Amino acid sequence: MNLSTSWERLISKKRFETTDSKYSSDESVRGEFQRDYDRIVFSSAFRRLQNKTQVMPMPESDFVHTRLTHSLEASVVGRSLGRIVGKSILERYPDLTGDKNIQEADFGDIVAAACLSHDIGNPPFGHSGEDAISAYFLSEEAQPFLKNLTQAQLADLQRFEGNAAGFRVLTYTYPAHCNLPGGLSLTYTTLATFTKYPKESLPVIAGTKNTSEKKYGFFQTEKAWFNTIAQELGLLKKGDYDQVFYHRHPLAFLVEAADDICYRIIDFEDGLKLGLVPHQQGIALLRQILNDAPDRVSSLTFYDWREEIGYLRARIIGKLIQETTQVFLQHEEAILAGTYDKPLINELGCKPVLDQIKDLSIDLIYRNRPVLEIEAAGFEVLGGLLDACMKAASRPDSRHHRKIADLIPPHYLQLPEGASDYERIIHITDFVTSLTDQAALGLYRKIKGIELPRMY
Asked: TM segments (predicted)?
């Protein structure tokens, strides 16, 4: 296996659904992968992450992270991971810097862009929102709309996945918006790096130990597009011939690691500063991660425990970045061969402490009573919105349903010629998924008559 040739094919500047000549730019000013990053930043879907749940749904504290701040922090960690790996890869295979013109910064920009968008398809109310959408399409109320769907289409809806919704956000253009397909027209490499689960919803691989097989990464509407990307980049095939099922792009492991590092450490920091986790217990755990590093804390005096937590968090993230890149480079050949498929942080020496932090976060933060109450309410909100919008789109003869349809932005109702029932449902699901927590709650209250809009 020629590893240099593999990397040369995997790092492609070809753009999705565009012509290179039309969108070419001077890379001495701004590289192609940096352009990916910038396009994501300026997208409306990314902006909406500022009001989507990360730890606490609809927080009153301005300190608590949202999906937006989490994504920004993950992209910073991802850029460092990518650049360190890129530097070593180019030292191992110096021919990559020749005609291919692959730079160290390219690796960082690819991983940063993928990290920036890794939650861009998440519905309101976090992972609870995914469960709420799945539950609705499993309910009796939804069955009349699902009669003509295939098993794979049903699996997309009844096992709804924010990662697949994110791939759709990045690659789909609504017919009402533009005749140029391709969504944000990102590079093939950034899209593949974004896709941590490069498979369709079926088959479900119960009990798999391979991390890339635990979820799925695209809906049936985008299946052919991902297949094109995978073949262009030379991703290794998995499954049967007719299945769109591949091994990960190697840099997707760094995206997963950046997300893992941020939510393990920074969500925990949120819990500590909100008083959900006893700060002495939390600080003791954070210090354990640094046990094998030079102890500079003893020479410092902190007059506020919150400042000490910030200091520890910064040092820990730096340590985890260095150790994670070492794990990646150690297993580079196995990753390229498709024989390595587990989270990189699972091999870190401090994993037992990270697991303790994860367990404590689940018990004291994610299962905190206000969080559970809002997530439970979110089930009712998203289920109610989906049901109302599905009826409005499918039964336009009713005056009540027409009024609800008028509340849905028209581009979600305008379908391509010859669209199937499945595509109609996906469009409605796109709308509900796109809403922020506050917008979803506000719309639900209005259509249920719980709250009336102010008249001016």
From this structure: none
Q: 32-123+162-246, what's its fold?
A: Hypothetical protein af1432 (1.10.3210)
33's tokens: 């992968």
Count of CB atoms situated within 10 Å of the CB of 398:
13
Tokens of 401: 């349903």
Beta bridge partners of 15: 187
pLDDT tens string 300-357: 788 888 899 999 999 999 999 999 999 999 999 999 999 999 999 999 999 999 999 9
CA–CA separation, 118 and 57 (whole Å): 19
The number of beta carbons lying within 10 Å of the beta carbon of residue 231 is 12
CB 341 within 8 A of CB 236: no
Query: How big is the CA angle at 191 (ends 159 and 343), to the nearest 5 degrees?
Result: 65
Residue-range domain boundaries for the chain: 32-123+162-246, 251-293+302-369
Q: What is the dihedral of CA 336, 338, 343, 345, to 10 degrees?
A: -40
Token code pair at residue 354: 């990270």
Q: Are 248 and 336 in contact (CB under 8 A)?
A: no
Cα separation of 166 and 11, whole Å?
21
Neighbours of 329 (CB within 10 A): 15
The 10 Å Cβ neighbour count of residue 388 is 22
Q: Provide the 3-class DSSP secondary structure of residue 159.
A: coil
Cβ–Cβ under 8 Å, residues 154 and 208: no
CB 181 within 8 A of CB 17: yes
- Name the least confident of 24-38, 43-57, 263-277, 291-305: 291-305
The candidate with the shortest Cα–Cα distance to 444, out of 367, 392, 347, 377, is 377
51 and 438 in contact (C-beta within 8 Å)?
A: yes
Q: In this predicted model, what pLDDT tens digit does every residue of 365-387 receive, in sequence order? A: 888 887 788 778 888 999 999 99
**Contacting residues for 144 by C-beta, under 8 A, at least 6 apart:** none
**What is the CATH code of the structural domain delimited by 251-293+302-369?**
1.10.3410.10
Same CATH topology for 32-123+162-246 and 251-293+302-369: the answer is no
Helices assigned H by DSSP within 42-161: 44-47, 67-92, 104-116, 126-138, 151-158
Q: Are 428 and 395 in contact (CB under 8 A)?
A: no
Q: CA-CA distance, 64 to 117, in Å (whole number)?
A: 20
Alpha helix positions (H), 100-241? 104-116, 126-138, 151-158, 162-171, 188-194, 223-233
